[in-house]
Every structure is written in C-alpha cells, then in structure tokens.
Design goal:
This protein has about 80 residues and is mainly alpha-helical. It has helices spanning about 15-40, 45-70, and strands spanning about 1-5, 10.
Length: about 80
C-alpha cells in the first residue's frame, strides 16, 4: 500500500506496519471498552469479559480490512 510521505514521495507500507498499527489502535479501544462497560454495569468481571471477547474478533476484522484496502488503488 502506498501512503504519502512528508516529502510527497510515496512509500510502501508493510504488513508488519499494519499489524503494529492494528495492535496499538486496539490498545486504546480495549481501555475505552473497559471504562465504558464498567461505567454502565459497575462490574469489573463483565467489563473484562466484554473487553477480551470484543477485542479478539474486532482486531482480526480490522487487520483483514486494512490488508484489503492495501490492495485497492482507488483514491491513490
């Protein structure tokens, strides 16, 4: 996938970068999920359970989505 670089030179984006990007994004979302569910339920166990299950499948879907878009040239 090509992304603009500071000097306007396109650069390739590796699969490894996509994985790191997905993981760091999920860390933020995990925290947000926990706080939100805890505030609604007041239950740590429910918040942790939701956080774990939700973030396993959404991380996988995000990574797949990222790699599919890496192959689409539309808008580049």
């Amino acid at each position: 996938m090509l992304e603009p670089h500071n000097d306007s030179t396109p650069r390739m984006v590796s699969g490894r970068r996509s994985v790191v990007k997905a993981v760091t994004y999920r860390i933020f979302i995990i925290c947000l999920d926990f706080v939100t569910v805890y505030l609604f339920t007041g239950a740590v166990r429910i918040a942790v359970g939701f956080m774990i299950v939700s973030n396993i499948y959404t991380t996988i879907v995000y990574l797949i989505h990222e790699r599919v878009w890496a192959r689409i040239s539309w808008g580049t």
